[in-house]
Write a structure and sequence with these properties.
Elements lengths: L1 E7 L14 E2 L5 E5 L10 E5 L5 E6 L14 E2 L5 E5 L9 E5 L5 E6 L14 E2 L5 E5 L9 E5 L5 E6 L14 E2 L5 E5 L9 E5 L5 E6 L21 E2 L5 E5 L9 E5 L5 E6 L14 E2 L5 E5 L9 E5 L5 E6 L14 E2 L5 E5 L9 E5 L5 E6 L14 E2 L5 E5 L9 E5 L5 E6 L14 E2 L5 E5 L9 E5 L5 E6 L14 E2 L5 E5 L14 E5 L5 E6 L14 E2 L5 E5 L14 E5 L5 E6 L14 E2 L5 E5 L9 E5 L5 E6 L14 E2 L5 E5 L15 E5 L5 E6 L14 E2 L5 E5 L9 E6 L7 E7 L2 E7 L5 E7 L8 E8 L4 E7 L7 E7 L1
Antiparallel strand pairs: 1-56, 2-3, 3-4, 4-5, 6-7, 7-8, 8-9, 10-11, 11-12, 12-13, 14-15, 15-16, 16-17, 18-19, 19-20, 20-21, 22-23, 23-24, 24-25, 26-27, 27-28, 28-29, 30-31, 31-32, 32-33, 34-35, 35-36, 36-37, 38-39, 39-40, 40-41, 42-43, 43-44, 44-45, 46-47, 47-48, 48-49, 50-51, 51-52, 52-53, ...
Length: 813
Amino acid sequence: MVLTSLHSFQVSTNGLDPLATLVQGKDGNLYGTTEVGGSNGGYGTVFKISAGGALTSLYSFTGGIDGAQPQAGLVEGSDGNLYGTTTLGGTNDFGTVFKISTDGVLTSLYSFTGGNDGAEPEAGLVQGADGYLYGTTGFGGTNDSGTIFQISTDGALTSWYSFSGGNDGGQPSAGVVQGSDGFFYGTTEDGGANDDGTVFQIMGNGALTTIYSFGMITNADGIALDGAYSEAGLVLGSGGFFYGTTSAGGTNDSGTVFKITTGGSLTTLYSFSGDNDGGNPGAGLVQDSNGSFYGTTEFGGTNFNGTVFQITTGGALTTWYSFTGGNDGAEPEAGLVQGTNGYLYGTTFSGGTQSQGTVFQISTNGALTSLYSFTALNDGANPLAGLVEASNGEFYGTTENGGSNNVGTVFQISTSGTLTSLYSFTGGNDGANPDAGLVQARDGYLYGTTEDGGTNYSGTVFRFSTSGVLTNVYSFSGGADGAYPEASLVQASDGTFYGTTLEGGTTGESSGGLGTVFQISTSGVVSNLYSFTLGNDGAYPQAGLVLGSDGNYYGTTYAGGAYDFESQGFGTVFRISTSGGFKSLYSFTGGDDGANPDAGLVEGSDGFFYGTTQSGGTNDAGTVFKISIGGTFSSLYSFTGTNDGAYPYAGLLQGSDGYFYGTTDSGGTYTNQDGDTFGTVFKISTNGTLTSLYSFTGGNDGAHPEAGLLLGSDGSFYGTTESGGEGGAGTVFRFSAGPAPPRFVSVTLTEGTLNLTWSTEAGGMYQLEYNSDLGASGWGNVESPFLATGATFSTTVPVVSGSQGFYRVALLP
């Protein structure tokens, strides 16, 4: 079996989605982290940026021992290195502490075990007066409610305190700060006397005192007027008070700014309204030389995309800037830092030219300049659907994300792997986030759907020329016509298309509808054929339809059916006529027969329909089934979740040999250090005999194929993976179902005997051949052909001293 990766979709090597506050180094540059993106599969980066906006990516995390997904900012140590944490990764995948030089040399200092030492640090570090670094973890510890730890600059870690989740607090998402008394102070997001979070003091011997529990003052609705859920750390003001924020609570339940003494006397300085002044501050404050504090709110403002504000020690608040959600950014989750030039610098989680976040500069009079917009690359990212081979011999497909607006693309790719991005969705009337593949109609155009976007933000049907011109055919309203189509279309002989929407319809409208089957003409005239009810008929069809040989359409629903209404059921198989005549053929029980089919059906040459369920079966890892047009059901295979695969999200394809071919999202023979598996390609006979043909490694070949396969005119199978590849954003691959060509894996010469070992595949017939001259024809056979029974075969050949000979192995037809 030979798999070739034709194209790896890329994510930005400079990173995406900065969550943390910046720090200014002694060299005048600003340093920060991004939670995702980078050149090693999208596990985040460390970057530096000049005051003029020149950004350099210093390090891309691999997701391995070095860590993954840093959510916190950095601190510059007295030795000139920068120190930080990653929330995940490390040897145990519970996060790390690392140091990195200003030229990008990273050293992993400690990997959390998830035990008493803690797990998943979300906060940054602070260097104490004693030279040690101090921080928190949000989880782990003796009660799995987080810890406070001390670590030396060479990686020796001591767990100081384990939160109980009770009166002492729990899940600290912010770091600690050292007071003038030498003690450390911090906040917890949860726990405390009222489970609204705490402010604490901890001594050098690990003795912790809760100095304040939020929620001590409430109104009649139970809202904590003194604030709740302090996600940010404290800052020591020039007057000896500590200042901080809460993301909720206050008179409008949109967060507060407070000050507190070391003895626990708390004063609420300001309650956000959630309107023009902002709402839900998730970051801490910074004090400037004039004594005022500056901060950000994630939401609110005149455009509801967050704000930058100034507040005095007396509680007078001024909104300096309201983000628009455009090039200036949106949703700042991190705090500000004041540069040596007097400007304040910060990041936004989203917005910017590519909707992936920004780095900005703001003056003390509120003039904001966007210094850098993080980008996703234009070729797209995360293809969820399979390919279609057009009449011009090229393959066409979609990506759910990426593109110039990061809401998906349409692309063309040749059999040699040359990819051209033909269209980037804007998220407007043209649609956004296509989950489904394309179909070429009789008029030569390609037709498809987008899950989001359109004039009503409920998805679209579009027409696309092979030269890259896209036309919106229809925008779903979210009402009776349906909403959020996730599946491909199928064209009838009269040119009309049929499809499904995940939600919408005439029933269950109070919850957004339960899905529809619709008919649409090439000019955009839509008719609702059926609205699902969540009864025996099913609900939430995620897959498209297939036209049966009897002229009816057949499909599946993810939920509903006759079993277990409390959990919304396990899905159905149904038949529908072109006039809307509907019949439920089978309801999955959630047992050995399977549960929750994500994929559609395929009609086999024997007249049965074949499909998959993504869960259920004897091992709850999904199944393959067949069903007759009358509803007679047979479960053919239950995946074990091991080498044979697990969780088939995609449907099947029948090959010319009569076997059905498909993919699983997980399982397979490759497992990484975290126990993750990456999916398989398999074939299965009509009587249920399954053979695993390929196991994805999660590397350059890709990971997690969620789409089915396409049989190309060249006899090869083509498909996509949702992630993995060189850029971590998915691949397009070609797969040959025949045996792989043999190759020598071991050749040794011992005392006149040549020992040969070569690769084989069970069932293949092989012939060892010999020639004394590579340039001559007429290779001779060595011994008789043999039938392989394993992965390798070995033999010995006598060699005459001083003679020259060449050997090769042929795979016989």
